[in-house]
């Protein structure tokens, strides 16, 4: 045998040995992962044995996770029910007010396995932060929603609503069909940008704003889809998938929008007159608080933290409110008798052409009852999740260990027949003054220390939008296009929300 042939044989033998060793190590790693999976699943099954659930596949979990199907569990399984997403991934759906009161009274962190999927988009702002940093940011931003700040916003909200209604008048005939969600989203984006971010411009007629709205819709879908897909949990692998690439593109579009808003406001504050006007203010708007912020240790808010809060509030300040308004309009359209009572109440306040003001918002009790009942039926944020930082025992004696993910199933709570008799019936009298209910039976803005910091802002906007719309249009349902509620980051409809709008004379 020649020297070269001998060298080649040795090389091939070396490669073969290496491949055999690599195969063995791979097999051992696979075996280790399989044992780890089985042990963790057994631990979960034992931890959850007090909480029965429907049969599930050992790997694919509960295959039918549609909202309509999941809602049947609320009546079947008391207080809480495990939902297996896949293999050893499970969350406990909680829809009992006593259970929710216990959880919301604690300081368990947001579930990282779920919320980390949002981080590339909205960063670590108030929604995703935990611990001391969350507390610092919450305390810093709370003054942005003081009533002294909110009062003048009512006029800005009204102007944004009127732009939307004017567009509707141009788009429809005497009695025409319209998909309203996109229009409402542009209006709420217009409102939040002008109120919280001191934006100057016509957001509702700007094509870039429409691109941002579409990006937010896409991000809702991609995040929801990723959370439920076992094969998309690894960040590196996800970035290589088609969904991952589209997700990154949508993130870039969203970031371009918010970066532009920050740049423009910084440029405005270079003007000495604008800077002096801001300094004279008793309280600052949201973005100005961030730009002027000094944390407790004396250092400025980092650019990363600033953009995270802007991304968070740009999304939450328009998308959740758009969901709320759109579903309220649908609820009123399907219950014309309640719609007419609201209209008469608003006409008694504003029928002579008076502009809506802060004082009017507390003079619409029946309209407020209808808004709350619509928020019960269609909560804009249908669930939130926590990871238990320590064991928990519920009022009925059942308990869960540390490390379990619990999902506050707000949609399930609001449709729980043990909490709300005839839960599918639209009945505004549930919220009549003096009516009694459990403190944690109605949570459209969550509850506890981590409740929505902008809930009063949102309620004001809902009232302004409903009042001005009912003065201008009669809302009619289209029985051929009944919306199908779908749980994403916010409550959307699979097939849009289509209404007939009839201009009032």
From TrEMBL:
Main location, first listed in the record: endoplasmic reticulum
Keyword Translocase found: no
Record localization: Endoplasmic reticulum membrane; Microsome membrane
Keywords, sorted A to Z: Endoplasmic reticulum, Heme, Iron, Membrane, Metal-binding, Microsome, Monooxygenase, Oxidoreductase, Transmembrane, Transmembrane helix
Transmembrane segments: 12-32
Family of this protein: Belongs to the cytochrome P450 family.
Protein name: Uncharacterized protein
Naturally occurring in which organism (per UniProt): Sciurus vulgaris
């Amino acid at each position: 045998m020649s020297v070269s042939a001998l060298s080649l044989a040795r090389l091939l033998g070396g490669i073969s040995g290496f491949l055999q060793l690599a195969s063995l190590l791979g097999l051992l790693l696979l075996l280790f992962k399989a044992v780890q999976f089985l042990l963790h699943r057994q631990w979960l099954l034992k931890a959850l044995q007090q909480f029965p659930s429907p049969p599930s596949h050992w790997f694919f979990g509960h295959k039918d996770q549609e909202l309509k199907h999941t809602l049947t569990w609320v009546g079947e399984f008391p207080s809480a029910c495990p939902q297996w997403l896949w293999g050893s991934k499970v969350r406990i759906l909680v829809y009992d007010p006593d259970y929710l009161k216990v959880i919301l009274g604690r300081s368990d962190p947001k579930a990282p396995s779920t919320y980390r999927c949002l981080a590339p988009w909205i960063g670590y702002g108030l929604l995703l932060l935990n611990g001391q940093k969350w507390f610092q940011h919450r305390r810093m931003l709370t003054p942005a929603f003081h009533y002294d700040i909110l009062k003048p916003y009512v006029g800005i909200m009204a102007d944004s609503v009127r732009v939307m209604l004017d567009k509707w008048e141009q788009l429809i005939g005497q009695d025409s069909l319209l998909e309203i969600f996109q229009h409402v989203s542009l209006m709420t984006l217009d409102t939040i940008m002008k109120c919280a971010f001191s934006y100057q411009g016509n957001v509702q007629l700007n094509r870039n704003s429409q691109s941002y709205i579409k990006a937010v819709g896409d991000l809702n879908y991609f995040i929801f889809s990723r959370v439920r897909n076992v094969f998309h949990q690894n960040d590196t692998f996800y970035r290589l998938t088609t969904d991952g690439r589209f997700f990154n593109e949508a993130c870039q579009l969203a970031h371009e929008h918010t970066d532009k808003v920050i740049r423009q406001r910084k440029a405005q504050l270079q003007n000495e007159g604008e800077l002096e006007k801001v300094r004279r203010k008793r309280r600052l708007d949201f973005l100005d608080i961030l730009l002027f912020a000094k944390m407790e240790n004396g250092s400025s808010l980092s650019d990363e933290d600033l953009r995270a809060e802007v991304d968070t509030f740009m999304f939450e300040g328009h998308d959740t409110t758009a969901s709320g308004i759109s579903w309220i309009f649908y609820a009123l359209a399907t219950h014309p008798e309640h719609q007419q009572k609201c209209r008469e109440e608003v006409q008694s306040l504003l029928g002579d052409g008076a502009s809506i003001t802060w004082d009017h918002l507390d003079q619409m009790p029946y309209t407020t009852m209808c808004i709350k009942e619509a928020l019960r039926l269609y909560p804009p944020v249908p669930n939130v999740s926590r990871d238990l930082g320590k064991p928990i025992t519920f009022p009925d004696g059942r308990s869960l260990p540390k490390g379990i993910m619990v999902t506050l199933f707000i949609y399930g709570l609001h449709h729980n027949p043990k909490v709300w008799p005839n839960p599918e019936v639209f009945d505004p009298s549930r919220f009549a003054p003096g009516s009694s209910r459990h403190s944690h039976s109605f949570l459209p803005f969550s509850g506890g220390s981590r409740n929505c910091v902008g809930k009063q802002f949102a309620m004001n906007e809902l009232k302004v939008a409903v009042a001005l719309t009912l003065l201008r249009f009669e809302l009619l349902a289209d029985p051929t296009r009944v919306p199908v509620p779908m749980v994403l980051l916010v409550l959307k409809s699979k097939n849009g929300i289509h209404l007939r709008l009839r201009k009032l004379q």
